[in-house]
Amino acid sequence: MEDRMQIIKSQKNNRITIGIIPGHYATNHSHVNFYVDMTSVKTSMKTAKAAAEVLAGEFSNHFVDTVICLEGTEILGAFLAETLAQSGINQNKDINVITPEMNAVNQMIFRDNTQKMIWGKRVLLLISSASTGKTINRAIECLQYYSGELVAIGSIFSAINEVHGMEIKSLFTEQDLPKYDNFAQNACPLCKQGIKVDALINSFGYSKL
């Protein structure tokens, strides 16, 4: 698969890149025609810091108490919190960076020691990829349960513009991947054409079939 990878540079900072591999892939929610590799943004200190600076520019007018990191965005989230604290309206106020736990039925939960970072707090939700919005919706339900206030949503890549009327600020969008598409599992045209699934994908990466 890797020999088919194409590198896409961010229009906002060409040091920030993702890789895309065309094919037929299955996620937990849908089938997609591209695997979007965001490994460098999630793991490279320099890339994550550059990405955080771009996203911080989108959120500079938001007062944020806590950044909730989903799908392996903790490094990006830490740099984002640091940049917001230094250059945003937080005025050097500390920002918490936390990740929810997933229980046996795949619900997001927070233990007692981290709930105080959600109750009555202004929360920025950070996710690696938003293709259908289902993960974001699940996170919003979790925030409502813990009485947190969602003030902003950020992502590395998003194929959708908003969720519940709130705009998703992304480093990469469908404009960067104009042929990207996702389909319900029972309505996938690639399956109907008899094209086999290349790999199972999630926020950790891919597993070839």
Features:
209 residues; alpha/beta; 6-stranded mixed sheet; globular
Distance between the termini: 11 Å
The secondary-structure element order is EEEHHEHEEEHEHEEEEHEE
Helix/sheet category: alpha/beta
- Please tally the β strands and state the result: 14
Helix content class: 25-40%
Query: Tell me, what's the shape?
Result: globular
Poorly predicted runs are none
Strand percentage, roughly?
25-35%
Arithmetic mean of pLDDT = 92
Any idea what the radius of gyration is?
17 Å
Helix segment tally: 6
Largest sheet: 6 strands, mixed
Structure description:
There is one protein chain. This protein is α/β, with parallel strands linked by helices and 209 residues long. The chain contains six helices and 14 strands. It has helices at 39-43, 45-58, 74-87, 112-115, 134-145, 189-192; strands at 6-9, 17-26, 31-37, 66-69, 96-98, 101-102, 108-109, 122-130, 149-158, 162-163, 166-173, 182-183, 199-202, 205-208. Strand 13 and strand 14 form a beta hairpin. Helix 2 (45-58) crosses helix 3.
